[in-house]
Amino acid sequence: MIEVKINHAGYHLEQLYLSDIHFSIPPGETVGLLGANGAGKSTTIKSIIGTIEAFDGEIHIKDGHRLAYIPEEPILYDHLTLWEHLRLAATSYDLPDEQWIPKAEELLKLFLLTGKEHHFPVHFSKGMKQKSLIVLSFMIKADIYIIDEPFIGLDPIATKNLITLLEQEKQRGAAILMTTHVLDSAEKLCDTFVLLHEGRMLFKGNLIELQQRTNQTLDTSLLDCFYYLLEEEVANEPRL
Question: Where is the signal peptide (predicted)?
């Protein structure tokens, strides 16, 4: 569904932070892109969606496949209502009214945004803006979802509904790339993991492979494996 090969990437040619990041996301699978703050997760995502200045590599997405991106910080137009955002997205993807309007109304109801359709997002809370982006993305039924820290700012009900949507889209055959610091959720939702550290890929595989890589038992959590792997990496780094 999507293949990612990043030889080098960064915000400037003189500052290439990422190196040798390569992974793929098959249809119907969720990949968790994990790492501490500054590991390179956001830079990897921006490389995939083509908004990074300095990039050397290849991103392969099958022709005709729709990609939806939900950033960590919600970005919406101040002078368009929520409904105008939805109509703009539908127009961009050539969706007929009979297809997108019922789906939009269903999602608005699910995320408790019914009655806010004709309001301007500039007056929304961060959580409402985040839910608006979720509605926009899932309304188009994308083939690939790239979601950056999806649970930040969401209330428990919205979090549960988002998890249900992600599972439904995965069953439909969508490929999902998700970054999150909520590792217990990542453990439940993701099929495989890509762990980054200081712009490099430390690990790629499923939880059992990670447990084996870190010499842990099969009941060791993703959080503990993640900690052990980073601790090992830091211990092996050369001292200046």
Answer: none
